[in-house]
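Action item from last week, closing it out:
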Amino acid sequence: MSASNHSSCTTLLVGKNASYDGATLIARNEDAGEAVHPKKFVVVHHEDQPVDYHAKLSQFSITLPDQPVRYTSMPDAATDEGIWGEAGVNLDNVAMSATETITTNARILGADPFVKNGFGEEDLLTITLPYIKTARQGVQRVGQLLKKYGTYESNGIIFSDINEIWYMETAGGHHWVAQRIPDDAYVIAPNQTGIQEVKFDDPDNFMYSADLLKFVEKNHLNLGEGFNFRKIFGSDTQLDHHYNTPRAWFGQRYFNPKRVANQSPESADLPFINYADRKITIEDIKYVLSSHYQDTPYDPFAPSADYHTNPYRPIGFNRNQELSILQIRPYVPKAFAAIQWIAFAANPFNTLAPFYTNILDTPDCYRDTTTLVDSHNAYWANRLISLIAADHYSEVMADIEAYQQATLAYGHQRISRIDKTVADKTGGDLMQALSQANERTADRIMKDTEDLLTKLVTKVSDHSRGAFTRDHY
């Protein structure tokens, strides 16, 4: 597998004043190049963090700093192609999601070629998250790594803490810009360079590679006015119009229906920074990142649709592998402020489970994923459900939507209950209590998932192709 097989993600970021509860929220679908690419949820303790790190897809290697902190991660179940940690929260409540693969153009790659043996998405969470104490430090660390080692691909990298969200975009082998997302704003990023006007005199809200201005000037890269990072470093191709921009269009249409009413799904001018008409919830994020353009002419599950001719790539589709929504809450003690909401497989048909991240271990049904099908494992149970639902959409969606509502309600109930239960605990006792609480949450959601799978198999089996009864005589 090449790096491009992980290059189909969609990111949604919500500033603390734009979210329903004052938390920073960063979320990203991890999509693979194939429908089945098993994932798992783990916690990495400092003693398990590598010292001498070696990539699998390139010759990149690095000696990592001393004293890493504990962090959660969403690695591949198979290890032969690398870790691909993707999303997690560390001991200091810094969240990271890496990466949103993005596009660039030939002029940039001519001036600053990719580095064949640099680092990439495979490596980024592992070599960054255990060594940072703030979101801003995350940008700074990756910037230093880019300067020294370079990268073999273009990526959008997300960091958050209790106060800030930073979105960092690389371009070429060594150059980059990062923008602090305004507290009252949201962002949808769909595999395209997104950051627009860069303010070089505003260090509170922008960071960038030290030679960025000179690099652009020397290589005659700026074709317009100001310094629009998207227009200088990004792309505007036919593929973008059908594969990327429709996803931003749908999300902005959902949060700002009046403003986007007359916009085309192929528009190249959709803004990067957006301001919703209302506060944004966990359910809103799940809805948008599960979108198959429902209630539009482009829904591949509409009764008259032919998904083979659908012009636009959906957000929620068969190649979704995992969704992590990383929530850092300001209204509870720091020791249990961070929650990682997790969903596996195709988002239109799965549900979210909320897990505290200050833990000793993760629930086995989310942790012990292998490459073999196992209906008692969260990834595989949801993969089986999505396979059935895609071919029997109208028959089973009522059951799936009831399951989604019930499990999301249960998730919110669990958070409220656990917050109260652990309020007087500290240190190892707290970690143990949160680990046990996560286990109970996983057990309940896994039971509901297995019940749904049983119901769907039973329902569609009676009407499967080749069915026959004695009544036919």
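Closing note: Residues 3-328 form one domain.
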